[in-house]
Amino acid sequence: MTYRIYLAVLLCGLTFLVAPTVWAQTKSVSVLGTERSAGAEAMRDGLRDALKAVGFIEGRNLKIMLETVVDDEQRLSQQALNLVLGRPDVLVALSIPAAQALMRHTKQMPIVFVGVTDPVEAELVPGWSASGTNVTGVSDLLPMARRAQLVRQFVPQAKRVGVVYNPADAASVVVIREFQEQLTKSGMLMVEVAALRAVDVSAAARSLIGRVDAIHTFWDSHTQVAYPGLVKVANDAKMALVAADTSSVQAGALAALVLPEREVGAAAGRQVIRILRGVKPGAIAPEIISRPQVQINLVAAKKQGVSLSDAVLKTAVAVVKE
Fold first, then answer.
1. What is the end-to-end Cα distance of the chain in Å, rounded?
2. How many whole angstroms separate alpha carbon 204 and alpha carbon 92?
3. Are residues 118 and 42 part of one domain?
């Protein structure tokens, strides 16, 4: 081998080592969601971030199909079937109903769920280890004890905490029972009021005035639809409203302990990348994101009569400042 040929081979090798990954074959990812919200959009953005970081560029070597079906179980099932029939390399589900709809139509194609709090309880996977099935994903599970501590952090004198929930929503019932247990361990009592319809939420919240020191909300479709009315009740009563998601803080809740949705989406994106590289989803254990942040709404703090200590302000992220 001559010196020039040797040099050319060496330079070729160095270029290969330092150049970003280039994926010659176009890959396809189909994403199914069941809500139109800032949180869902942030998860999609995180997914794209992760894929782009390793060289998957939309319109070049990556095709992403985004579908959202809100409050229509029959249409959700049909859309899930359509995505499966499109045979993408990976299917991504942004909620429990989306994951369940996809799972009904395929037992072979890779499915990655995103932001599902308890995929075992939802029967998406049999346990927290690698499932051996076509399903894996990322959980936004946060210990309920941390949520109870958050109430105490913002309302140190709290003895009773109100919760508005939909008793027809099995997932909500499980969540508030666990929350009740953790409140009791923290020396607080839970006062629960039912709201079977979205229009019942405001009245249910008003029934808590004078009976509780704070209200804590969890995600369910009824509460989210009626959140402005719930915020008004808290503001009028000068009572702290603590939530479990960013969108509720943006809508007027005082604070929430959350996992940033974009981070959750990026973590799911990294699982998608492993699958695109040939790893079976059943060999990837479901992941729990464990770096929560406290988000606060400074405007809501004033309206709800809550004084924020310097210690709280130092450890929190202000989502709404003015």
1. 70
2. 36
3. yes
